[in-house]
Amino acid sequence: MDSRRRPVNAAALEARERTTRIRAASRKGKTTGEIAKAYEFPLKMVEQVLAPVADVRLSDPTSLLNNRAVPPGGPSGDVQVYWVGFLTAAGQICGQGASHALIMTLGDRAQQHVDTFMADLATPQVRHEFCRSSLLGWQLYVRDAGLCKVLLRWGVPSELHGDDPALLEDLPKHYIAPFLRGYLDGDWSALGARPRFSGLVFRGTEPVLAAINTMIRRGWGSRSGVVTPRTPRAELRFNRQDAETILNHVHAYTTRSRGNGKRQPV
User: What percent of the chain has pLDDT over 90?
Assistant: First the structure.
């Protein structure tokens, strides 16, 4: 099991499912009224789930995926999607409301990359600090409730809501490479890991890896992907031929990179 996941009760699962359905319908361009009518949800609840978040530099996925303008001063859409991929692999949102915090597990300190992240997505007043874990290496704590609220809508893992890989179904083809570049850069569990087979490995939760596999098949036609449960994180493996295809696309995206060099099929 992914070390970031926590057990949840039936009520929490039901609330998570409602939120997922509301966000998915919104990404497809449905209005709050249409969503409330289609699912027989109270309109006020739908409006609350989709309420705009002020003073953030990350677009709401409904806005970005429907080609609306990015927030003033915010980075381009591809850079935003890169960081969503990175945080899907390396991030977790803890707490609720004003106490929200983003925890990024980095492995190594990655100071330059952290500085780029803060410049891209954090507003000047945001506090952040490093902490070194004996098990996971360097972690970064970012205390920004607004950013965390938007990241929840992008499906970044959280203690309360889990993850929402359904968003990857709606990711346009031109955003697949930035997302995967970010995901591979954020895969802290791969740092220093020795390959066990010839090909390419993604690590994460089984639902996220299944969604990545479907997205890659849809975008680039690679069909050798197999998700295998493992501890502490499941694995998605591609054979060497598909690995070369995937990495050629991913390495063509160079606007953001952790700077660990090009990953090669093994």
Answer: 62
For 237, the domain range is 173-252
Query: How many C-alpha atoms does 251 have within 13 Å on its Cβ side?
Result: 12
List the structure tokens of 104.
């990024």
Q: Do 185 and 86 form a contact (C-beta atoms < 8 A)?
A: yes
* pLDDT value of position 262: 60
Tokens of 208: 């996220």
264 is written with which tokens? 């090669």
pTM, full prediction? 0.89
CA–CA gap between residue 221 and residue 213 (Å, rounded): 10
d(CA 236, CA 224): 10
d(CA 23, CA 129): 31
User: Domains in the chain: how many in total?
Assistant: 1
Cis peptide before 229 (omega within 30 of 0): no
Q: Is residue 12 part of a domain?
A: no
Better-scored residue on pLDDT, 9 or 172: 172
pLDDT band at 3 (very low <50, low <70, confident <90, very high): very low
- Going from the C-alpha of 123 to that of each of 26, 54, 102, 106, 166, the distances in angstroms are 26, 11, 14, 21, 28
**Where do we find the tokens 């609306």?**
68
